[in-house]
Amino acid sequence: MKKLLWFVLLLALLTPGLAMAQSAFDGTWKVDIKTAQFPTKPDVYLLQDGMYHCKTCVPAIGIKADGQDQKVTGHPYFDTMSIKLLDDARLRKPRRKMGRSSQHRKRGHRPTEIS
After folding, report:
1. Which of the pair, 13 or 82, is modelled with greater confidence?
2. What is the DSSP letter of 66?
3. Rounded to whole angstroms, how far apart are CA atoms 52 and 91?
4. From the centroid of its chain, how far is CA 55?
5. DSSP, residue by residue, 68-102
6. What is the pLDDT of residue 42?
7. 10 or 30: which carries more pLDDT confidence?
8. CA pair distance 62, 29, nearest whole angstrom
9. Beta strands 61-64; 51-54: pairing state
10. pLDDT of the residue at 113
């Protein structure tokens, strides 16, 4: 009985070590800035006449900015999106996939940056 108890105790002590074993994602990641590819064009968003447009999104988005969920197609992480203007410099844009919230963002811009 004592041997079984020692075996269980030893197994209990070694189990956390096995759970922390190395994987392909462990360690220090180093990025080579010289080979990184960054976007060459800025993102273009337009909120005008009650409509929100994302010209640089692929596929492009054009929906009513009334705070209600609007159907969008072609995006893998969301199928509905809503835009609500909070004030003259901020908006809220939650996104949903199959009715469940997938992304919730608040965007803000200083009035001098709004064109």
Report:
1. 82
2. S
3. 11
4. 19
5. S-EE--S-SS-SEE--EE-SSSEEEEEEEETTEEE
6. 86
7. 30
8. 38
9. antiparallel
10. 46
Type of residue found at 57 = C
DSSP assignments along 40-54, one per residue: SS---EEEETTEEEE
Distance CA 24, CA 47 (A): 43
**C-alpha distances out from residue 18 to 5, 25, 103, Å:** 20, 16, 35
- The mean pLDDT of 57-72, rounded to a whole number, is 92
| Closest by Cα among 89, 107, 41, 95 to 63 | 95
pLDDT for res 19: 62
Mean pLDDT over residues 78-105, rounded?
Answer: 85
Q: Which residue has the tokens 């949903």?
A: 96
